[in-house]
Task: structure prediction
Amino acid sequence: MRTPLAAVCVALSLCFAASASAATTQGGEPHTVKPEGGALDLISSSFGQRSRELEIVYRSAEPITPQLLAEVNGGQICTIFEQASLTARAVCVTRADGKWRIVSRGERLEGSVSQPRESELRLRFEPAEAKLKVGLADVYVKATAAGCSAQQAKAAKITWSGAKIISAAVLARPCEHRLPRVGSYGARVWDVVTTGCKRSGAGQVSRGPSGSKQVALTYDDGPSSYTPAFLRELRKLGVPATFFIVGQLVSANASVVRAMLREGNMVANHSWNHADLGGGGAGASTQLRETNAAIRRATGFTPCLFRPPYGSTGADLVSRANQQGMTSVLWSVDPLDWRTPGTGSIVSTVVGQTQGGGIILSHDGGGPRSQTLAALPQIVRALKGRGYKFVTLTDLLGYAERISLVK
Ligand code: ZN
Result:
């Protein structure tokens, strides 16, 4: 479900979490300290989780300029995470090549840095990027202004005698600050569970945005005895697919459905028993509802996509699907694989007809599917060779995930 959107966020723009994540937040209360003067004088920090990302906010008494954090001169603000059974990990923000960077152990992390106001920096990154574990962490912050020397690092020690300064050995203002001054704050890395997806836009679609170089593989009528082989092949190829599954097959194949989601595929609704629901009516609503309930029982995930069996659809059915939070999805490429026309025919139809935003229909259940399976790697290699990227249908349509944070 992830796109590297966050990585394109640049300095001075207010970047939000990747659009594919619903806003779910925990923590983030600011800890404040009194200013102690000098360069990069942080007065508060906070550690929270926003959707899949940890969010760290630093506020300073004065503007945080690119010069103060210049990497070449050693400028950085680091949060040091101490977690049980792990060696301490520092996640630092610095400035190089005209951009804010998040760095840990000398490596650049994917993430975003924004500066909503001059005196504030906001970092977001996925905990796994910094190799942090789910659970509690002791954290403290060390801010070092660029060019800070060991002598300057300490606060100026001024000795007074009467009204006269007798020693001002270090006149420079401090350029290194620690939050808290002593000890550490408590923070938590949350586990993220995907609980569903959120439809938007048209009530029924048969393709994604045509300008894109993305395409979606979809498989209907499973799970079947062929499905594990499809999952293995997808894993080997490193591409996801979207499975429109039949509700009454879910409970007997719950572990396969869980594997679909765990491996980055999308799970969607293909009715309870593959009935023709084109006429709509209350019975159609029941088919959709019971299928989603079975999927939710097996996986904790609620689909937001429905494909009408036989492509048989109508205004009433579409509106019933929409009422249950699902978009009705048809297709733009149909190799008629269920007729077992031969692997070569399946491959040439798909490769010949697929364009950007394409939704490719195939079947992993409902009959012999070895031709469809054999076609999969050939289709992926051919379309990748033309510059297409395979994504889940929800990603193709730009839908958001629903997630929840758990301890
Ligand atoms: Zn079907």
